[in-house]
Amino acid sequence: MRACVFCSANNGLPENVLREAEIFCDELKARGGELLYGGGKAGLMGYFADQALKRDLKVRGAITKGLAEGHEVAHKGLTELVIVRDLFDRKRWFLDESDVFFVFPGGFGTLDEALEVITWKSLGELDKPIVFVNVDGFWDATLESYKDLALKKVIRPGGLESYLVARTSKEAFRLLEQL
């Protein structure tokens, strides 16, 4: 399982979110998986990479040159770090290289990546699972806004079924096993 994680590159997330990243890496290790992510060493992204590496998981990242040298700063200890031209190429790499997408707490970049895969899936261009890991209700307001858009008929029928929602990493992996 090549599991792509979309998450924050910012520091300061609550301890329970960091703990959930550790549990996720334990669950991924138990399944013989590998972690794919945005290639940075900052914030939750870097924490995920470090936790996966501590568990001897294969960790692959994709980052733009500008991000590698700027805000996100490339993680130099990965199994593989791919430098891509731009954010479009980064998302294309995620789409091509991943088997499943997990959306953890994050901001605009995380939402951009999540919406990209949700859009592709809802249009029939992607057939890979997407799971929001809704730690302590982090995504509640966002997910409610998606329901509101569906009620307003601007999301295709069935569009909300493009993704799953789990409260924890363990629940996320259980949901995948049921597919």
Average pLDDT reading: 95
The profile of the biggest β sheet is: 7 strands, parallel
**Total helix count?**
7
Q: If you compute it from the alpha carbons, what radius of gyration comes out, rounded to the nearest whole angstrom?
A: 15 Å
CATH class group: Alpha Beta
Distance between the termini: 14 Å
- What fraction of residues sit in β-strands? 15-25%
Helix-strand pattern: EHEHEHEHEHEHEH
Q: Are there runs of 5+ residues with pLDDT below 50, and where?
A: none
CATH topology: Rossmann fold
- Structure class: alpha/beta
Identify the overall geometry: globular
Strand sequence of the main sheet, in spatial order?
4-3-2-1-5-6-7
| Count of discrete domains | 1
CATH architecture: 3-Layer(aba) Sandwich
Structure description:
The chain is of the alpha/beta class and about 180 residues long. It has helices at about 15-30, 45-55, 65-70, 85-95, 110-120, 140-150, 170-175, and strands at about 1-5, 35, 60-65, 80-85, 100-105, 130-135, 165. β5, α5 and β6 (about 130-135) form a beta-alpha-beta unit. α1 (about 15-30) runs parallel beside α2 (about 45-55). It is globular, with a radius of gyration of 15 Å.
